[in-house]
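> tool_call: predict_assembly(chains=two)
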Amino acid sequence: MPDGEAIVASGLVRQFRKGPRAVDGIDLSVSYGEIYGFLGPNGAGKSTTVHMLTTLLPPTSGQASVAGFDIVHQGRQVRTVIGAALQEAALDPILTGREHLLLQATLQGLPKPKRVQRADELLTRVGLTEAADRRISGYSGGMKRRLDLALALVHGPRILFLDEPTTGLDLQSRTALWEEVARLAREEGITVFLTTQYLEEADALAHRVGIIDHGHIVAEDTPERLKAEIGSPTVEVVPVEHDQAELLRGTLEQFGTPVSADGTVTVQLPGGEAQLAELVRALDAASLHVASLTLHQPTLDDVFLAKTGRKLEGAADEEPEEAPADGGKRGRRGR
Amino acid sequence: MRRFAFVVRGVAWRSIHNTIVSPSIIIPSIVFPLFFFAAFAGGLSKIAQVPNFDYKPGYTAFQFTFVFLQSAAFGGVFTGFAVARDFDSGFARRLLLSAPARGGIIVGYVIGALLRWGITGSVVTVVALASGMNVPAGPGDLFALLALGVLFNLVAALWAVGLAMFLRTEQAGAVIQMPVFVVLFLAPVYVPLHLLTGWVHSVARLNPATFALEAARGLLAGTPTDIALAFGLLGGSIVLWAAFARRGLRSAERAAG
């Protein structure tokens, strides 16, 4: 593993012409081999941050380095060590999947035998061997995403940027992509910087999560710590007999203040999930038969709510979308 | 330098690959100059009988030189359209992200334009020869004529690629094409320069394209005139428009593609 951090940013700012500060003084530090999840609603500044870190967009102020290379003054070196799959998998409809990989490998300076070998290898890995020689115009959205990931990996990058990689994918494709990303970090030691607006994605994949809102990082830690910071888990208990709801309520009072609704009694466990066994013993002692018992951990949505006062779902509807990078020429990015 | 060469190779490969495999790209590049050649050399052939029309190889050869240079220029212009299309589709962003040496993107597109013109220029030449064009020029003159065409193509390609990088939308097509069209048609297209009168003559006399066209006609006739001036002007234009294209790339870099 190389010395230092894979990604470091300090006071990173990007202000668009006649627009707001899309990124407003971000400080970041991502270790080698880490999967860092950048979570936030649309327009929060996630993609703009990725564009700066991948040298697509110069910062207005602040500094950042990727693999030890300055993103402004050593862009060429940065681009040789990173791979990136951006939000829109911009592919050439005239080229086939294999031709895309060969082109990408040429751009990255791989010698010809290696180009062919690497293309075959990646096509197999992302399950596109059969479609390899078909033009992209005939690919589904999921196939394009998989090809995009393969393109990002063609030159064996040390750091991978994935900008909302699963947006628009069905559940099966999403799960497959998650598994591949986790494998890349686990087996190949690739550092992954992943932006997402899906809580479960950040929760499932990321070693650490940064929550971004209005261009600021409002919270950053492991998903577990972030959730633990918010509060303790809750337990939902449904008795077999509805008339036992009151008895159940009384039994659960020793743990906190139970709340009843629709035959379900919910109580917060101040001592965390370690108290679950104690709760089960209390139910048994009271001879209560339960139809279901569910432990609810705090979610990242609860964290987002606590830090911003809004739910992540629908937060994008309340704020202007990210200004286009060229000062307003292109259309607004849809969700 | 090695990385630069790989970027050039990748971008040029894609440019020429798409030109060959996609009829919608290659057909207009071929049809345009052939249409002009058929319309001018065929339909206006009586111009050769105008008093003081003194181009010895005849009107077909006179028109061929124009269409030859026009196809070279349009090879560059159509490449500019392709660049603008790449920005609209987001593919240009992929190139900016994937190319360690971004200057290679410009050179790759320009070489793609040259290879594209290689196809159209060959077709135009074969059609002109098949229609009985008289070629008094020696091998050296023909080689110089080819070199003139190459430089003309490079000038147009650098202009078109640079402007496409500044504007970054397919809607820029007219803005890319119009100045090239105007410059070409304000040269002595139908009759020799000395037969033009009024403002058209005044403009044509100062038009840089006139120097290239007159030099090309002299070379094809085997009587080269003002060759150094034409090559010098084209060389200077290449330096100018290469700097322009470089600034276009910088502008695209600032705007995240």
